[in-house]
Structure formats: C-alpha cells, structure tokens
Design goal:
Layout: H1 20-26, H2 36-44, E1 53-59, H3 65-78, E2 83-89, H4 96-101, E3 124-132, E4 135-136, H5 138-145, H6 148-152, E5 160-167, H7 176-179, H8 182-188, E6 191-192, E7 218-220, H9 230-251
Helix pairs in contact: 3-9
Amino acid sequence: MGKGGGCVPSKKRQPAVASEKAVGARNAPVPPEDKSHEDSDAAAAPPPAELKLKLFIVFYSMYGHVEGLAKQMKKGVDGIDGVEGVLYRVPETLPPEVLEQMKAPPKDLEIPVISAAELVEADGILFGFPTRFGCMAAQMKAFFDATGNLWREQKLVGKPAGFFVSTGTQGGGQETTAWTAITQLAHHGMLYVPIGYTFGAGMFKMDDIRGGSPYGAGVFAGDGSREPTEMELALAEHQGKYMASIVKRLVHL
C-alpha cells in the first residue's frame, strides 16, 4: 500500500436516526388545558346588575315646601321596579344676606346642585318650583335659560317631563304656574306628562284644602309656616309613581 493508501473516512455526515423514544415524545398529543376552575368561577360569578332608569327630580325651594314634595315624589319613583329617583336642586340666584333677611332656612347639603348639562343623563325629569305671580320662580327660570346649548344641539328632545308647584294661596297659581312652564318643554321638544285625574277619588275630595291639579302635585305654603298635608304628600308620591311608570313604558317601546 503506497503513501496515503488505505481507507479514507468519508467526509459526508451520515443522517442521524432519531430514536423512537424521541419521536414519540415529539409527536405525543398535548393534553387539553384544564379549565374546570374557570368554569366554576364563571358559574359562581353573579350576573351583572340591571341598570336602573334615572328619573331626575329637579327643584327650587326657598322655604322647604317644594323640597318636601320632591322627597315624597322620590319615594313614589323608587317604588317602581327598575326606576330610580334622583334629587337635585337648581342654583340659587339670591345672595346669602338677602336669603337671611327673607328668613329662608339653610339648604339641605345632601342634595346636590345640578348643572344644565347634566339633564341629558336623565331618562325623565320632574321639575318643581314655587310660584311668582302665576309663573315659575326666577331661580328656575334662570336654570331653564341656561339650557341654550342643549336646545341648540337638541339634546332633550323626546324626554318626558312633568311639574309640581307651591303657591301661597288657593288662587295663587296651582294651575297657571305649571301650564305657563310648558313653553320651556315645547321649545326643547320634550314630552309633557300631566297626572290628569289618575289620583282617583283623591282629586275630587272637598273636605280639606289641598294643593295640586291635573297639571301636577302642589302644596299651599300660606305665609311659609304651613306644612304639606297628608293628601298633598300622597298626591306627590302618586305623581312619582305615575311618572316612573310612564318613563319605563316609553323606554321599552
């Protein structure tokens, strides 16, 4: 055998042969992920709470008579399943020193002051105010005057709304204070909802002096010392229930 003779190993690498064990491990089926705990967690999770319709009760009250009706009205609204009454007061326009001279009691700080822009969040609105010569008080009129942007953008169109009032005497505007306010709703394209005679026999009783009319609940304030009667409060609660049922019906049309 000459120089360089003999067997020269091949430089070609032989293909590696995978063991059956390795192949089997690579091709083994992946066990499904155990999601039993997720299913149990989902089953245990409570269903999402149903969102309630919002009926805003927006009022101005100097001596507390309208506020008393508003709070009673909220009880009526909350008595209708799926609807919640939310109390708001409109901004005061008189300075504190004037209110003090008029012997107006302090405002209930638990009831927030509403801005005009917040009205769009309501599914329905009840406006309450005392009379001033047969029309709404200046504080409520100032609030309506601040809704110009909502009118321009037609944000309140189709929202149901109603009124409740307070007057000093029997002939002081239980009806006119409400129906002169209808112009505010008309320009916004809102739906006026009076109570009519839905209160039943209570609308016809003549035994006691009672505020309220087919236009809405009402109270006689007298010189400011008279408190709402049981009948006046019952009518306010009825209006809350009635309005809440109308709002609920309109939403589900």
